[in-house]
Automatic annotation (TrEMBL):
Signal peptide segment: none
Family: Belongs to the protein kinase superfamily. ADCK protein kinase family.
Protein name per its UniProtKB record: Protein ACTIVITY OF BC1 COMPLEX KINASE 3, chloroplastic-like isoform X2
Pfam families, per database record: ABC1
Transmembrane segments: none
Lineage: Eukaryota, Viridiplantae, Streptophyta, Embryophyta, Tracheophyta
Domain Protein kinase, chain residue ranges per copy: 85-420
Any one GO molecular-function label of the UniProt entry: protein kinase activity
Length: 574
């Protein structure tokens, strides 16, 4: 809509009002009207030195709309699950409120029905169709979300509604899309979503807040404002990931005309006519798919296609595994973050084409959305990688999301063959800290809570064994550091003429132990340097190590560590 639109600036007294005119809509231009080049906006501006405020232009209806919206949102926050029993209990003791709401609905719809009846009797039914359609849209908007949904449903039923009504009710859809998008994503300071002005909106005109900005593909104009295209594209990618994988409600048409860079450095989204949703199960499966890709677990990747709704559950995925292995083993000669998104999609598409895959509509729109953003980034920097820019978000979600699916994916990523992969945790923390929403106090909490739960027995065993390795590495590292600080001529005396002392270990063993210690210290430093981190958050680990089962594992946690270290030292002395 935005690309084909023009705006009309109306000067009236101390204020100016802009209205977008869509295709096929014409307005006469009397004296005082000026045509402007911008799209889809309205704003009431007071005089610089005047005392009148823009609220006078909006009038009481706008204030009532805002109050009604706030009340509706408050009600919706406590009504996520429909329950007749709950509603009966809640409103059974509020008969006055029920009667008042019933009268409000009956009066609004009854008066509209009466107007239609009078139009029919007067022979003006066809003549007044557009007028009545606009009135019905206003009624639905003021009656709240339930009736807005009803209007959206009717907008897709040409068998029930005349074209004039379909046009008006369709505005409910896009307007509500914009309102929902703003509610979900405009909480970030670098994202701007324009408001809808319903009192100035009709079937052919969607009136929105004015936004000053430059299209995202106009690099030179953006840089003249002191901004960087890549920063804005990265903001777009992070917001898109939230859309796709957090709430599942996403803008499916993010081309340059619908993305503006504002002078303040914000990324503004326009045109909410094409939206889509990612199913909840698919959101978690996509993140899990990335984990399986990093782990090169192609069997698990193939099984992910069930949750992604690519395959029916009765399809055998075993023949798909070799095809995935052949493609990704070649593609992953570099790290995943260095892969070009288009190359990855094209290669995966070639694999999917060979098998009975059914690509859902939401997935095609996701690919389109991310491909457009990557194209904008590559225009500014040919070396830009969307997957690398996406890593911080994935790392943050894996480290902090309490969803059981993602919690298990994190455990799968961190543990392999009974060993903890400290390098993976370090990388996740490094990347996660790059996400502005990362909170160290939430990091690893889903896993730590599982440690003490009834389902955490296997995890507790792994943690106890890993505690042995870490403690041994720290103690041994301290001994080695102490040994290295002793003058060379004294080492022979201390170790009975053996100049190598505690360093006489199997080839590479010492290096591995020292690297483990250093990794643990680096991870501890990452956590301590993070905002809101409290060491007490790691209390579950200490509680596990104090359990009787920790001491029963061959006595390794307490006496076992000392015994093994003593054996190594005595071996050198004797």
């Amino acid at each position: 809509m935005a690309a084909a639109a023009m705006s009309l600036v109306v000067s009236a007294g101390s204020h100016s009002v802009c209205v977008q005119a869509g295709k096929g809509f014409s307005i006469s231009k009397p004296k005082g009207y000026k045509l402007g080049p911008r799209a889809a906006l309205v704003e009431a501006r007071p005089r610089v030195n005047g005392s009148q405020m823009a609220v006078q232009v909006l009038g009481g209806d706008r204030a009532e709309d805002l109050q009604a919206e706030a009340r509706a949102m408050a009600r919706a926050a406590n009504a996520s699950v429909y329950s007749p029993e709950l509603l009966a209990r809640k409103y059974g003791s509020r008969p006055v409120q029920v009667v008042k709401r019933t009268l409000e609905i009956l009066i609004a719809l009854g008066s509209f029905a009466l107007k239609l009846l009078l139009d029919e009797r007067n022979g003006t039914l066809d003549q007044n169709k557009r007028k009545r359609a606009a009135e019905l849209r206003t009624i639905f908007t003021r009656l709240g979300p339930t009736f807005v949904k009803l209007g959206q449903g009717l907008s897709t039923r040409p068998d029930l509604c005349p074209p004039e009504y379909l046009e008006e009710l369709a505005q409910l859809q896009e307007g509500q899309n914009a309102r929902k998008f703003k509610m979900l994503y405009a909480d970030k300071e670098d994202i701007l979503v324009p408001d809808i002005f319903w009192n100035y909106t009709s079937g052919k005109v969607l009136t929105m807040e004015w936004v000053d900005g430059v299209k995202l593909n106009e690099q030179a104009a953006i840089e003249r404002q002191g901004l960087k295209v890549l920063d804005l594209v990265t903001t777009g990618i992070q917001c898109s990931l939230r859309q796709l994988l957090e709430y599942g409600y996403f803008h499916a048409d993010p081309h340059p005309g619908n993305l503006l860079a504002t002078p303040e450095g914000k990324l503004a989204f326009l045109d909410f006519g094409m939206m889509s949703e990612t199913p909840e199960e698919a959101r978690f499966a996509i993140i899990g798919h990335v984990v399986h890709l990093v782990n090169r677990d192609y069997e698990a990747m193939a099984r992910d296609y069930y949750a992604l709704d690519f395959l029916s559950t009765d399809v055998d995925v075993s023949p798909i595994v070799p095809a995935l292995r052949d493609f990704f083993d070649d593609a992953l000669n570099y790290t995943v973050s260095e892969l070009n998104f288009k190359t990855l999609v094209d290669g995966l598409g070639a694999v999917l084409y060979q098998y009975p895959f059914n690509v859902p509509a939401y997935y095609a729109l996701i690919l389109r959305s991310l491909t457009v953003l990557e194209g904008l980034a590559l225009y500014a920097d040919p070396n830009f990688k969307v997957l690398a820019a996406s890593y911080p978000y994935f790392a943050k979600r894996l480290l902090t999301d309490p969803n059981p699916y993602l919690r298990d994916a994190l455990i799968e990523l961190l543990f392999k063959d009974g060993r903890f992969r400290w390098n993976r945790l370090e990388n996740l923390l490094v990347q996660g800290k790059k996400d502005r929403d990362f909170s160290a106090k939430d990091a690893l909490q889903p896993v730590l809570k599982l440690l003490l739960g009834p389902d955490g027995e296997e995890l507790r065993t792994l943690v106890i064994k890993e505690a042995v390795r870490v403690t041994e590495a720290v103690v041994l590292g301290t001994v080695v550091d102490t040994y290295n600080s002793v003058p060379p001529f004294m080492r022979g005396l201390m170790f009975n003429g053996n100049g190598n002392g505690v360093l006489a270990m199997r080839a590479g063993e010492l290096e591995l132990m020292m690297e483990l210690r250093d990794q643990v210290f680096r991870i501890w430093g990452l956590l301590r340097s993070s905002e809101n981190f409290d060491p007490a958050l790691l209390q579950p680990i200490l509680q596990v190590l104090q359990k009787p089962e920790a001491h029963s594992l061959g006595g390794r946690v307490v006496g076992g560590i000392t015994q093994r270290l003593a054996a190594r030292l005595l071996q050198q002395v004797l």
